[in-house]
Write a structure and sequence with these properties.
- There is one protein chain.
- The chain is an alpha/beta fold.
- It has one domain (about 45-215): Rossmann fold (3-Layer(aba) Sandwich), CATH 3.40.50.150.
- Helices cover about 25% and strands about 20% of the residues.
- The chain has helices at about 45-55, 65-75, 95-105, 140-150, 170, 190-200, and strands at about 20, 25-30, 35, 85-90, 105-110, 125-130, 150-160, 185, 200-205, 210-215.
- Strand 9 and strand 10 (about 210-215) form a beta hairpin.
- The longest helix is centred in the first third of the chain and has 15 residues, at about 65-75.
- The N and C termini lie far apart (about 40 Å).
Length: about 220
């Protein structure tokens, strides 16, 4: 069984022995929320993880990167009111999604545990929150995602971009799992589980974007 035998997202102990194994890491499947995850003892050190992110070359001047982010930006921008206040969680070394929203007339706060570690942003509430290519890096996804959900205003929109798990066979040859900073892998059933937990409306946009709409009654 997986060490500690608890899912990091739902904290249940309904864990499959091994979903996949390669020469570097083990991957486990939670039968409750369907998250696939790497056990903590196989995480990179903080220093090694930071070093990997330092090599990212993303910037607002990169038109290809903007095009990539538009898969999240466009469906969110269509749904949020003008002049909304947002938070870009996991903004990285070259914040770009926030720039795109600001160019569209919104204001955006930034948080990144390595590059913009200002936790005062969690004292505010937001009309929208984005997490682009972030959730796969989370070491404590239940606590981190719930913290974001709690600072989203009623009626707000939470947009997540991440590649999704489809099935065990596809996972064996999936390039996404080979990045050692990726430790949590979400599937559509995982996002459906989150939507039920949060009593949120879930909208699946393409192959790697989901939107959670918070109830006005929350």
């Amino acid at each position: 069984m997986v060490p500690n035998s608890r899912c990091p997202l739902c904290h249940h102990a309904t864990i499959q022995d091994t979903y996949h194994r390669d020469h570097r890491r083990n991957f486990y499947l939670c039968h409750t929320c369907q998250l696939v995850f790497v056990p903590p003892h196989q995480f990179l050190s903080t220093e090694a993880e930071k070093s990997a992110y330092d090599h990212h070359q993303n910037s607002p001047e990169d038109l290809a990167y903007r095009s990539f982010l538009s898969r999240l930006f466009i469906p969110m921008h269509r749904q949020i009111p003008p002049h909304s206040q947002g938070l870009d969680f996991g903004s990285g070394p070259g914040p770009t999604l926030s720039v795109m929203f600001e160019e569209a007339g919104h204001s955006v706060a930034l948080y990144d545990c390595f590059f913009a570690d200002d936790r005062s942003v969690f004292q505010e509430t937001y009309d929208f929150i984005t997490a682009s290519e972030v959730v796969e890096h989370l070491h404590h996804p239940q606590e981190e995602l719930d913290a974001l959900w709690n600072i989203l205003k009623p009626g707000g929109l939470f947009g997540i971009m991440t590649k999704r798990v489809y099935n065990q066979q596809a996972f064996t040859t999936w390039h996404y799992k080979n990045d050692l900073t990726h430790v949590c892998f979400f599937s559509q059933p995982t996002f459906q589980w989150l939507a039920e937990k949060w009593k949120a409306q879930l909208v699946v946009v393409g192959q790697d974007v989901v939107l959670f709409k918070k109830s006005m009654d929350t």
